[in-house]
Amino acid sequence: MRAVDIIMKKRGNPSSPQGESLSREEIEFLVNGYVRGDIPDYQVSSWLMAVYFNGMSFAETGILTDCMLNSGERIDLSGITGPFVDKHSTGGVGDKISLPIAPIVAACGVRVPMMSGRALGHTGGTLDKLESISGYRTSLSVPEFRTFLEKTGFAMTGQTKEIVPADRLLYAMRDVTGTVESIPLITASILSKKVAEGSDSLVFDVKCGSGAFMKSLPDAQLLAESLVGTAREMGKKAIALITNMNEPLGNAVGNFLEIEESMDVLDGHGPKDVTELTLALGAWMTVLGGKAANFDEGMEQCQAAVQSGRAMELFMENVALQGGDVEKLKRDRGTRRSPHHTEIRATQSGVITKIEAFTVGLAGVHLGVGRNRTDEAVCPDAGMIFKHRLGDRVEKNDLLLDVFSRDEAGLENAKNLLTKAVHYGNAAPKTLPIILGEITKL
Ligand code: URA
After folding, report:
1. Given the DSSP bridges, would you call strands 399-405 and 383-386 parallel, antiparallel or unpaired?
2. Domains of the chain, earliest start first
3. Which of the listed residues 86, 88, 118, 195 should we mutate to test ligand 1's pocket, taking the one with most ligand atoms within 8 A of CB?
4. Which of 11, 38, 188, 326 could pair with 64 in a Cys bridge, judged by C-beta atoms 3.0 to 4.6 Å apart?
């Protein structure tokens, strides 16, 4: 078998541009060959582009998920009392929900074994955010993961050389080759991690809109069906919420900046949209875990976990367990900002009618929140803080955004993008609810 023949089969040709379905042997050959280092990056990126354009059948997606899952070990959670429930987002701008939701749901008695990813395309990554806490480690061994999960009720890790190494490599390659926005590739990436981590049940947050990989509701619905359908085929209980990602979530976009905002949610004074979505997804996690009889009961439990301070206590316990410096985190809160700073001010008076999440995410990459190359490090202290949100009335020259960059060049590029990302009008914009759709029938 040769990689080039598999690429050409999926790519098709001018008289048959849709390509052909690949067999299990062919998908296995590519995935295993890439993980072993036998197939080079350039062939895999070419194959990813063929999949991006020609897609994969439901059966191929299942096989790809399986091959990625089998590229490494699975985490064995036997001996630890469940239920084990996780949540995964398909990626957004300012989407920090994983950070507050894990301790909130753990405080409700549901264990959350969470395997997350890094920044992808214009979207942020939970691992990059967590690593912005001084000392925090996200590459856990299986025994460490089990111990932390048992002690605090949740643990946060990433793909490693041992666990779903195929996703670790493919994810990094997709990030820089323009091949992220693909339903089968997203499905296989997410589910290989979620099955490897050992959760019994999954809640998917399928983002929809300018800042999401799925821009339209029909596409988001297809991705939600693919995730829920494949998860159920793999023996998991699963539901999905389709949520609005036309504007960034919350006021902060960045790595450490989003840790700060997550702590605000845990303190009970986070931005309304982040808090509402965290509690809604958390409520579903408690329902799937059998701790709440219905959504409303789950919501009450999650709210109580915040109000009692228990969720924040668990967050801090986890930071300490995973190597983070808790005292430094407390001191850093509200102070750690990249030195290259600028302000974006309103170019006219009026009502803010749109804040393009995609453009904001792209500006974040220029600032150092994400990567342009697989070997690039992110900048923990880069990002931006919104002082005004959609629907706010502003006067010309009012401060809209504080922007912090890794370097001057990034700051300049981001400034140009961010100035264009904000639109003004005379009348209040039509606002969408945070939850646009759901697949919640179990
Ligand atoms: N999250 C993932 O883990 N993978 C994707 O492809 C997109 C979002």
Report:
1. antiparallel
2. 3-55 (1.20.970.10), 85-330 (3.40.1030.10), 340-425 (3.90.1170.30)
3. 88
4. 188
